[in-house]
Amino acid sequence: MGRMALSAVPAPSPRTQAGTAALASLLSDPEHAMLAFDFDGTLSPIVDDPEQAHASERSLQALERIGPCVGKLAVVTGRPVRTALRLGAFAEREGLAHLSILGQYGAERWDAETGVESVPPPPEAVAEVRAALPALIDSLGLTGVRIEDKQRAVVLHTRGLPDPAGAQAILEGPVAELAQEHGLAAEPGRLVVEVRDPSVDKGGALRGLISETGVRTIVFAGDDLGDLPAYEALTAMREGGDVEVLLVAVASDEQTVLVPRADVVVHGPDELADWLERLADALGC
């Protein structure tokens, strides 16, 4: 398996010295590297119906090429593991034997090597909030808000409403109060408000996976507020000299919060697929 020089990787190249160093480490020693990804808005497009947000075929094909070359692949998502498996068809793909899916921000797990799912029971508080949400939505006059039940979390979708951003703004305060009453947190995202257990996040999930695998380099790509804990944890690990880190922001018109923190910026899942294809070429996979 050949190795190409860092200069062979086409744009967008890292815009920071730390990102450049991490990419060089990945290319020179891929067996001790991990590539990790958010799902929605990163590997898959954001669509009106979240049940139809299938992973990009081009990204999946690139990961099939990259998978045998690197030490670890991971999907770290707010989706339940079973939903991510269905929308990504990861179990059906070649070359993904090193893949782990950490679902519900790390509360659930599936490993390709064993095919075993770990899905603990959901907090009772989530069911209590779920039961109270229809009346709350009606009281706010927000007809058409969709409720997605993820068992360990509840997501309110305003996409498709006449004024989705305005509806989200109206929801955020009352939903946050309801969540707090039940010991949960309400987290805004791209035209969504999610209620979940705040003790589990992507930062902790990635720290655990890095410790488990012993990788020396990690690439993480995300697009939304739920990915901030991952960025923060990995930035701290980089500053502490624990690992080389390359942070990729998948930017959109709806959300740019990760852009100033990122080493590489791509615009949407299609550009991420382009970048992954180029990375596979550079790795000689």
From TrEMBL:
Instruction: Tell me one GO biological process term.
Output: trehalose biosynthetic process
Gene name of the encoded protein: otsB
Entry-linked NCBIfam families: T6PP
Q: What is its EC number?
A: 3.1.3.12
Q: Which UniProt keywords apply?
A: Hydrolase, Magnesium, Metal-binding
Q: Entry's SUPFAM superfamilies?
A: HAD-like (SSF56784)
Which GO MF terms does the UniProt record name? metal ion binding; trehalose-phosphatase activity
- What pathway is this protein said to act in by its record? Glycan biosynthesis; trehalose biosynthesis
The reaction(s) this protein catalyses: alpha,alpha-trehalose 6-phosphate + H2O = alpha,alpha-trehalose + phosphate
Q: Which family does it belong to?
A: Belongs to the trehalose phosphatase family.
InterPro entries documented for this protein: HAD-like_sf, HAD_sf, OTSB-like, Trehalose_PPase
Q: Which cofactor does it need?
A: Mg(2+)
State the function annotated in the UniProt record: Removes the phosphate from trehalose 6-phosphate to produce free trehalose.
Q: What is this protein called?
A: Trehalose 6-phosphate phosphatase
